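INFO  loader      accepted 1 record
INFO  loader      residues=430
INFO  predictor   begin
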Amino acid sequence: MIPRYNRIEIEKIWTNQNKFKIWTEIECLIAEKLADMGKIPKKAAKDIKSKVRFNVKEIEKIEKETKHDFVAYINNASSYIGESAKYFHHGVTSSDVIDTSFSIQLNKTAIIIRKNLKNLIKTLKSQSIKHKKTLMIGRSHGIHAEPITFGLKMASFYYEFSRNLNRLDNAIDEISICAISGPVGTYNSIDPSVEKYVASKLNFKCEDISTQIIPRDRHAYFFSILSIIASSIERVAIEIRNLQRTEILEVEEFFDKNQKGSSAMPHKRNPVLSENLTGLARYIRSAVIPSMENIVLWHERDISHSSVERIFAPDITIALDFSLNRLNEIINTMKVYPENMKKNLNSLGKLHNSQKLLLELTKKGLSRQEAYSIIQKNAMDAWNNKKKFFDVLINDKKLLKIISIKQIKDILEIDIKNNKIDWIFKNKIK
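INFO  predictor   done
INFO  writer      dumping tokens
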């Protein structure tokens, strides 16, 4: 990921320095358990824990010769241990350490993402309550439908991200896995109790059955959930972008006094933050296909997944971390324009209450088809000729034989009360 989108807290998890640090911690835990079991001398475990260290630049230098990053690490780290170095990385394979380390990195990034997600959920809930009765037009297919409130729109996002939190918790559980089973996963060279011990220290579960690596269906599930979260982010971003259009202007991203909207047009106030999130969501979702393809490996293992994960695992988690923080900032600081919402709501002269009139006519004995035909004819007249709906309706002599002018007026004004909003918030917003 380019530095533009990096936040230090999550970026450092993916550095080589941190990766080698995790490898070292796992190797020390393995040695510790092997010593307790009498498989290696206790002095060796103590030496490994107290003396082992590594040098990133030296590892990179050695790798140019070995063409194997983990062997390069072992060569460098063991060089500091002395005589006990022969017990370092004892009975295990590189995949045991690398895959368990990868689990740790994914877990730590996911915990940060989870914190960001909770912050966003809190902000969305706050805005939904704040705008509980901020009346606006609801739109389907981009066309005026019936009135809603801006708070209800925010509440929909609140629940969507709450579901995402549950999904993420499941995904964290899915990838918090330790696998230390030796070559091809048979435990021939390492006792299963070592795996159990390391897993307990990490607060991870042991892999049920591994081949030589942790099965990649776990990781595919994890990145699929991250992609769903990204799509939810884009849904909100698209909504803000649409509501900020000049012709609508019901919501607007905060625009700093020193901010510039265009290099050429000084009047521009563009929804650039939301547009940025739309682009990042596309990128995050791009991890789904390669993560799915990583499930399919030759026999007990190959490394075709490795190069892919080295690229997208840091980038995707960093991009999602950035996106959640940015969206939280947007929602927290956005400008809401209730007067513009009211103006747009009334711009079609109460056409949005056509269904209420239809239902009233059925109560008065008309078939649904008859009622629909009468109301649609008047609605199209108002739409095509830019007339007020009320004026058109009260000039329909056939309609006035069925319903009074007062009843028509009362029905057209019913959205002002929006009397179900209180019930929705009382019963559904937890």
